[in-house]
Amino acid sequence: MKRGWRGLAVAASLLLGGGCTSLPDAPEVIRLAADATRLGNDGDAGPHGVGCAAVRRNTHLSDGATLHLCWPVDAEQVRVPGAFPAAILVPGGLVSAERYAWLQTHLVSRGYVVVLPEFPLDLPLLDAEPAVAARALLDELATTGDATLAGSVSLTNGVGVLGHSLGGVVATQRWLDDADLGALVLLASFPADADDVQARAGDPVLVLSGARDGASTPVEVSAGFERFGTPRWLGLVSGMNHYDWTDGVRDDERAGDQAATRPTAASRRDALRLLDAFLDAQLGGDPQGWARLDAGVFPGVELRR
Q1: I need a labelling partner for 229 at 20 to 30 A (CA). Which of 35, 62, 147, 243 fits?
Q2: With a threshold of 0.70, does the pTM exceed it?
Q3: 3-state DSSP call for residue 262?
Q4: Distance CA 122, CA 95 (A)
């Protein structure tokens, strides 16, 4: 099943033309300044600054994809030395990529390189190739060379793939198709009925959702979670709804969701405690992340395995 994604990723990395841009030499924007006093504890941001740039890559089915690439920078807005674990963040259906900038920024501040692709019509189910291009970009960043960001990505523990809502369906399909995607995170999401997720039993999965989610209900999310093999973790966040994962919630989205019973910032912080522990353990190989996962104590989150 795997090898269609890998072939597309290689092809995407080789395509040249008007839809492509070179790797950036410097950030186009600094989303967060470096601050050594930020320790990254308890779902908080880490010490790194966050530099971002838009990278264009050609795709087969459209005029090309815009990939929002963010990486850790220091107080001088220069790339932090070293190779960092990496992740792809797939937006939900009819939700623009920019509405997940808060989550991308959080992860990068803690020492990750994260690519957030844009999808045609904001529908990742129609054309998954921006995610393929994101995967190829991370492969490119993992290689050594003269570019400023060359060697900035470590593939030691594979690339993580996260997806919200319908983006989680696409993330799952990419994870099933590429054995080098090392960890899967579903946010308010569950796999499509036809996907044989048992094919990757033994690879880590985290499912995070809100107890007040009216679009991907706790019953649906729990049923999807049970289909995965171990190791797996399910976190049900108290008071959180479907669109607490996004900024800029529209009135029509609120109408199709349940009302959250806690402030968004509080729900997100509780969710991030578990997400950070999972990614630090699975992608970063951090013993402290493993210890937090093993202890299983995450305030505001009902945890199952």
Answers
A1: 243
A2: yes
A3: coil
A4: 6
